[in-house]
Amino acid sequence: MSARQHTLVAAGIWLALSIVGVAIVVGLQIMPVIASREAQIENGAFVVLTAMSVPVLLLVVVPMAYSVLRFRAAPGEALSDGPPIHDHRSFEIGWVVASLVAVLALSVYGAVGLLDIRGDRPGTVEVTAVGSQWSWRFTYPGIEAESKELVLPVGEAVHITIVSKDVIHSFSVPAFGVKQDAVPGRETFADVTPTFTGHYGGQCAELCGFGHTRMVADVRVVEPDEFTAWLDDLRKAPPK
Fold first, then answer.
1. Looking at 87-232, which runs of residues are DSSP E strands?
2. What's the rounded Cα separation, in Å, for the pair 239 and 147?
3. Which residues of 146-162 are buried (b: 16+ CB within 10 A; e: fewer)?
4. Over 80: is that where the pLDDT of 3 sits?
5. Hey, what's the torsion of the CAs at 25, 28, 33, 37, to 10 degrees?
6. Can you tell me whether residue 80 is helix, strand or coil?
7. Domain extents for the chain?
8. 75-134 confidence digits (pLDDT tens)
9. Residue 33: phi, psi to the nearest 5?
10. Average pLDDT, whole number, for the chain?
């Protein structure tokens, strides 16, 4: 076989494996639990990045494996260096152009997703998450009491104001794709739209002292009617 034929065979193997690899990745759910609109967007970004990395990985692995298997020396064969290759102008230009296009496309895709998650959009439900060593408390507008659990209505946009009473914490609900620092003396914000009812774990994702591992919160997503009833109960009998 000529060098050109070997190149075509390796390219065919690379193309076939890339198609299979991308097809497998596209069908994956990379985030373990997706319970919000924002988490769905983030999972989509992970899938796109992973899918685009498959052909790049195989572009390295396939030629290397093909060379090792096809051109390995036979037992007893004298070893010698192959002819030197000084440059391959078309390959170099194609690689630079393809990389530039991929980076620009990912930048646009990432910016659109980031604006969708972090953009200024009103929330129909307002909540304040208050972090202190080592617990989370949640307050709702017009209600004096604090709740130990975060209760949210499914399908409604929620704007969460995050504050800290002492040191830096980080409010994280992995199922929502939310992770936002709580900084003393500042207000930070997170927006989330829950898509499924159920119980989810909230936690502090910033080392904040000896009780850091115990700084967790129960997050409950309920139907809108149940959420309204829960708020009424919170007004009448504030939890301690």
1. 125-132, 135-139, 150-153, 158-164, 169-173, 178-182, 188-192, 198-204, 216-222
2. 6
3. bbeebbbbbeeebbbbb
4. no
5. 80
6. coil
7. 3-70+95-118, 125-236
8. 777 777 777 777 778 888 988 998 999 999 999 998 988 888 876 666 788 999 999 998
9. -130, 130
10. 88
* Residue 154 φ then ψ, to 5°: -70, 140
Find the DSSP H helices in the chain: 3-26, 37-70, 89-118, 224-236
Task: Tell if the pTM clears 0.85, that is, is over it.
Answer: no
Encode pLDDT of 187-199 as tens digits: 999 899 999 999 9
Q: Which residue type is seen at 82? A: G
Rounded to an integer, what distance in angstroms lies between the CA atom of residue 62 and that of residue 58? 5
Rounded CA-CA distance 150/171 in Å is: 12
DSSP 194: B
CA 98 to chain centre: 25
**163-192 tens-digit pLDDT:** 999 899 999 999 998 899 999 999 999 899
Q: What single letter denotes the amino acid at residue 116?
A: D
Residues 37-80 pLDDT 10s: 999 999 989 999 999 999 999 999 999 999 888 887 777 777 77
pLDDT at 29: 81
**Right CATH for 125-236 from 3.40.190.10, 3.30.390.60, 2.60.40.420, 1.10.3090.10:** 2.60.40.420
At 82, list the tokens.
């192959």
Enter the tokens of residue 177: 């794709």
Give the separation between CA 140 and CA 2, rounded to whole angstroms: 73
